């Protein structure tokens, strides 16, 4: 990634702000920081991905300075985070955060992959479970179908000579895909309810809901989240793929003294510890 950035910028990259899932523990954060050092980077700060996205949204949405509660719903390829922030002017205060470091788009791919494996075995009487190449080709096709189903009602999964000379073809509808992943989709609402509880806020107190991460393009995810908040419209004004990087870049600019615009001059980020410290009080 350092090399990609240097090619894009046309100059050497020595410092960086690196983002991590909000629910990463201290060991995971330190390992990420160590990886940056091994790559030759001076890691200025490790910040949470939904918090970075909130910075991008807060600076790019053209909002007024009025106080508002914003929920960041960040569902990516492998992790899921929810953060509830209070934003007023340039002050971003994280009220609560929750998530699952083992839930994301890859899990939805796997559900579809397992469905396809069973269909292939039923049709051909052959099991591809122990063939890495066949599984890799099928997973790639499943991921492509998943993306197609975000905009279309059905998709075709078609692979020539998938295993032992047998071709594979299957139609998958959006409804069937949603059925296969119903438990995972519904499970994303649990951290949403948790952050509301931790922040001691009612659903009606959340003014804006921001979607971040490629998996938020799935229509069923959007519908479930909107229904949870009693039909509230979801914010899609920022690019879900770029929001985290944009926020991290802003933070890097501030820490390195290169961000001098009026929008960033008073920016203050107040985050929370996402995991329990293990201390009980009576």
Structure description:
The longest helix has 20 residues, at 105-124. The strands form three sheets. Strands 8-3-4-5-9 form a five-stranded mixed sheet. The protein has a two-stranded parallel ribbon with strand order 1-2. By secondary structure, it is α/β, with parallel strands linked by helices. The protein folds into two domains: 2-103 and 188-270, ATPase, nucleotide binding domain (Nucleotidyltransferase, domain 5, 2-Layer Sandwich), CATH 3.30.420; 105-182, ATPase, substrate binding domain, subdomain 4 (Actin, Chain A, domain 4). Helix 3 (49-60) packs across helix 10 and helix 4 crosses helix 5 (132-149). The protein has helices spanning 2-9, 26-38, 49-60, 105-124, 132-149, 174-180, 182-187, 189-199, 219-228, 243-255, 262-265; strands at 15-20, 42-48, 68-75, 80-88, 91-100, 154-163, 166-173, 208-212, 268-270. The N and C termini lie far apart (47 Å).
Report the order of strands and helices: HEHEHEEEHHEEHHHEHHHE
| Count of individual beta strands | 9
Q: Order of strands across the widest beta sheet?
A: 8-3-4-5-9
Distance between the termini: 47 Å
Ranges where pLDDT stays below 50 over 5 or more residues in a row are: none
CATH arch. level architecture of the largest domain: 2-Layer Sandwich
Structural class: alpha/beta
- The proportion of residues forming helix, as a percent range, comes to 40-55%
The count of helical stretches stands at 11
Q: Approximately how much beta-strand content do the residues carry?
A: 15-25%
CATH class of the largest domain: Alpha Beta
Rg is 21 Å
Keywords: ATP-binding, Nucleotide-binding
Organism: Verticillium longisporum (Verticillium dahliae var. longisporum)
InterPro entries: ATPase_NBD (IPR043129), Heat_shock_70_CS (IPR018181), Hsp_70_fam (IPR013126)
GO molecular function: ATP binding; ATP-dependent protein folding chaperone
């Amino acid at each position: 990634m350092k090399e990609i950035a240097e090619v894009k910028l046309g100059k050497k990259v020595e410092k960086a702000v690196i983002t991590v899932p909000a629910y990463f523990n201290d060991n995971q954060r330190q390992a990420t920081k160590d990886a940056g050092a091994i790559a030759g980077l001076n890691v200025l700060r490790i910040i949470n991905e939904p918090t970075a996205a909130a910075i991008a949204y807060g600076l790019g949405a053209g909002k007024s300075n009025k106080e508002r509660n914003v929920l960041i719903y960040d569902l990516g390829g492998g992790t899921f985070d929810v953060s509830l922030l209070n934003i007023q002017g340039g002050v971003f205060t994280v009220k609560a955060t929750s998530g699952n470091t083992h839930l994301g788009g890859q899990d939805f791919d796997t559900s579809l992959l397992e469905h396809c494996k069973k269909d292939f075995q039923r049709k051909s009487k052959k099991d591809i479970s122990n063939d890495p190449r066949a599984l890799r080709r099928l997973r790639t096709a499943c991921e492509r179908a998943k993306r197609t189903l975000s905009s279309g009602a059905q998709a075709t999964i078609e692979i020539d000579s998938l295993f032992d000379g047998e071709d594979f073809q299957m139609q998958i509808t959006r409804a069937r895909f949603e059925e296969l992943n119903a438990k995972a989709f519904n499970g994303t609402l649990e951290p949403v309810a948790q952050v509301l509880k931790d922040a001691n806020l009612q659903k009606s107190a959340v003014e804006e809901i921001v979607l971040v991460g490629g998996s938020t393009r799935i229509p069923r995810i959007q519908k479930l989240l909107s229904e949870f908040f009693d039909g509230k419209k979801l914010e899609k004004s920022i690019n879900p793929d770029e929001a985290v990087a944009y926020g991290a870049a802003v933070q890097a600019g501030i820490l390195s003294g290169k961000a001098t615009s009026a929008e960033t001059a008073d920016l203050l980020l107040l985050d929370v510890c996402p995991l329990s410290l293990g201390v009980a009080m009576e």
